[in-house]
Amino acid sequence: MIFDYKTKYDADTSGHFGQFGGRFAPEMLIPALEELEKAYIKAKKDTDFEREFLSLCRNYAGRPTPLTYANNLTKQLGGAKIYLKNEGLNLSGAHKITHCLGQAILARRMGKKRIIAETGAGQHGVAAATVAAKFGFECVVYMGEVDVARQRPNVFWMEQLGAEIIPVKFGSKTLKDAVNAALKDWITNVRNTHYLLGSTVGPHPFPSINRDFQQIVGLEVKEQVKEMEGKLPDYLIACVGGGSNAMGLFYRFLEDEEVILIGVEAGGKGVERIGKHAARFRGGEVGVVEGYKSLFLQDNYGNIEKTHSVSAGLDYPGVGPQLAYLGQVGRVQFEYATDREVIGAYKLLAKTEGIICALESAYAVAYAIKLAPKLSKEKIIVVNLSGRGDKDIFIVAEAVKDKNWREFLKTKLT
Amino acid sequence: MNNIDKKIAVLKKEKKLGLMTHAVVGYPNMGKSIEIIKILAQYSDFLELQIPFSDPVADGETIMEASEAALKNGMNTDKAFEIIRNLNLRVLPFGSPMSTHKGTPAMGLPASRHPLVRLRTDKLTPVLVMCYYNQVFRYGMDRFCKKARESGVSGLIVPDIPPEEEKKERFIEACLRYDLYPIRVISPASGEERLRINAKYAKGFVYSVSHFGVTGTKSELDKDLQIYLRRVKKYFNIPIALGFGISSPDQIQKIKGMVDIAIVGSAIINTYNRDGLKGVDTLVKSLKNCTIQKENI
Ligand SMILES: Cc1ncc(COP(=O)(O)O)c(C=O)c1O
Known about the structure:
By secondary structure, chain A is an alpha/beta fold.
């Protein structure tokens, strides 16, 4: 059984990770959260549930994803050995499909006919639309207007998969506002709808549920590194939006205290100025927003501040409560990369390893590029490539100022 | 005795449906907002004043947009309390400890010369502050409650702090330390067990959301409303206030006898947006008239 795995860093029965987490939801949602928690506790003990989940992961989504030794990048940097966990090879292009499959089975078991989701980069939205198609759910995806514009390819794919996309026009028009819009829909349609929340955030039990589904990433990495190197890795690096890909990679290593865990946040245009980044561990304060207590970028009155990142998926003012806790107790170390470093990392990875990764994932790569040369050659770093980069074609083409692409777009318009 | 209880006693004696009206403090701007609140205070039994928040998860479009606008105009918790404190000079009865309060008056005017002063000082209109938990938490729980109390607030409506978090947060405890009633919000989604848990902590009245949804989204009343209210009555021995989507005298007429207090929020903002202060006056006056009419009219 994979779902009975526990660590000393888990939540208590009411969903608190130390001072973080909890279930700060309006009463309208508490019954639904209780229903979900009950369904999950029951499913966890059910071998049929686990069998179905693992079978879908393998035969539908394409797990296990490969762990690739980045020999060229390693050589160029001249330090620690870099391995890449290529989650971009999942169906729908990112790790997000994993928790979508898990939650879809739960939704079916609860008798829900409709799922809703929020999305930033669109990867979670595409994954949600994918499982909706597969399971026969009606699907509505909320997406901030800013993100609709910058991740347009994913909007198109979600529509092709049969989902309805509702652009969110309030607030900062990014991921957190999409979460708010989805919560409001859930409040209204809670009887027939499951909210397929896309990260390790939100009220209990979402942070624990999504982590449990995503733990398969770390579980595979552990076996793969053992097979290739005969030992545990020394460093694990993942980008951190809400935390689902990071918790997925880290979870099975939490109690291997010698393994250093590094989460990389969006430093945007620099972490000195609020509004220009999304580095919660630099400028965040404890708060209670969107149903959970964690670190949030906020003002003195508790209003959420604007955030910035080239990657829509990391452009979020809060962070998963378990990561906030792991940061506080020092088990996970948090670093950041800037927009500029990220574009550089993305390019370097493509040229040296032939892998076009999502901009979100490039944050983890960017930090690995800084870290590897400082380490000896025996050290092993595993970088989580949470997604592939197809969706970022417009952002990247603009960032690298590709003239031919621009000309091509012009011809398409006529 | 908390002013909410005092008011409820009066309503009971007069056998009247209470009216609680709502405003977002600072919407559309500081001055107009005070004008709106002034109109509401004239006709209402309770005032629900919402301190705008960036991420109001239980609110529909109307209140959300009003909150955004108010924040953009610089409204914040301190300013909101300042406004409320100065209102209370007017809405508390003579002889109450708060009416002799000598705080710094708002907008730099001495209290006695403030444009709203002396408005219905004989009328008891408890003020309840609505906000989200992060606003309380970030301000500092004790500091927030103390400030609310000093500003003459009688209760807090904070929808996103369920009783289960009380053990760690001690929010209800802080409220009661300052004689603020922590109003419980329940909804048709709440089953018997949820009602029982909330009833344990309820004070003053219970805020019953009328339907599945956020504020201001529906215009007709749920057909299952009566069944739901019967369930609520089984667990709460305090008055029931019904809100979310109540907008017209017609609806007030319909819920008479079913609940004790009617709450009107988004409809007032919508009316202001459409017809300005005059429209608000007409609407709230008609709502009030409806609440005091005899049942069979
Ligand atoms: C490819 C990819 N990586 C990472 C993230 C960030 O989310 P999380 O921190 O939950 O993994 C996203 C979110 O949209 C994403 O699409």
